[in-house]
Amino acid sequence: MRVLFLWPRKKIIMRLNELQLKNYRNYQELQLSFNKNLIIFLGENAQGKTNILESIYVLAMTKSHRTSSEQELIRWETDGAYVSGLVDRGRSTIPLELFLSKKGRKTKVNHIEQKKLSSYIGQLNVILFAPEDLSLVKGSPQVRRKFLDMEIGQIDPIYLYDLVQYQSVLKQRNQYLKQLYEKKQSDEVYLEVLTEQLIDFGSKIILARKRFVERLGYWANALHQKISQEKEILRIDYLSNVPATAQSLPAIQQYFTQALAQVKDRERFRQVTLVGPHRDDLDFLINERNVQTFGSQGQQRTTALSVKLAEIDLMKEETGEYPVLLLDDVMSELDDSRQLHLLSTIEGKVQTFLTTTTLDHVKDKMSVEAEIFYVEQGHIKGE
């Protein structure tokens, strides 16, 4: 069966040409080649469609969006999983490999092992849009911080380095605050050293997030106004212990230092670091009203859709390449109007992988040949 979609021909700079899995989730072995700009995995629920999209995400990011346990990605009663892909970046084709085992993970680019995560992330840029992403607006601050970290990390490898260092220092500082409280340690100089490191790495993270959110808000508002037929203006605010007026690294460091000084006694009593990017959040406002608190479900979903789609143009602006888009059964969660806006936004821009139980959501809405794979109990059959 062939389905036609309205998609103007345009060269896609970044695309995944091949995917290979071994002992990944419910796939003992799988090898696929992709020749179209739109690839659809069609089948009933719990057949393995999402596992394929997850494997592409894992290949790009080295971790899953569904679980924090790498063991869940390894096929039952096997020692390890293997995911590889061939990435076309216009002028070059790059093989990526990811090995998962009980001992940890190993990554390779062009068959050369990468010791640093920052040397691997960004070789394949992806944007995932799943039903749970519709709760980006209403979810916890932790969800929004994770969103920022994952997206900025693809664009800026240095951000990943700073983030890893910050998390390490934060853990050490919290442990030492506890030891001070329990009178097991009394070295104030060591605490000062940890605090200086926290401010150093934390300020860099805050600055990167500020700049990202500013650009994200620009693109998201443009999309949101189209979806709302120019009736609504969307604004995204980055909520931090550092004022929005602080736009330079020295200014952020100064405010961060002052904020830590103000909570010094409370931190010792509570034995935890009380300020820093690990506690930051995002606010979404439509016509100056907070969407999380006062927005309707429709407004919340439109905001989430605008933010996710804004990532496409933002990533192109920052990296010079459009990312690969992963749509995991999200069409069924959107009404007809939002479906059309989603499809019109991605037309001609990105290679898209889509999972669905039915073609009704996309049929007759676009018109270029789609590559369709039928998924049933971990087995895939092409057209």
Note down, in words, how this protein is organized.
This protein is of the alpha/beta class and 383 residues long. The protein folds into two domains: 1-125 and 321-383, Rossmann fold, CATH 3.40.50; 143-318, Glutathione S-transferase Yfyf (Class Pi), Chain A, domain 2 (Up-down Bundle), CATH 1.20.1050. The protein is built from nine helices and 15 strands. The chain has a six-stranded antiparallel β-sheet with strand order 2-1-4-5-6-7, with helices on one face. It has a six-stranded mixed β-sheet with strand order 8-12-13-3-14-15, sandwiched between helices. The protein has a three-stranded antiparallel β-sheet with strand order 9-10-11. Strand 14 (371-376) and strand 15 (379-382) form a beta hairpin. The chain is globular. The relative contact order is 0.19.
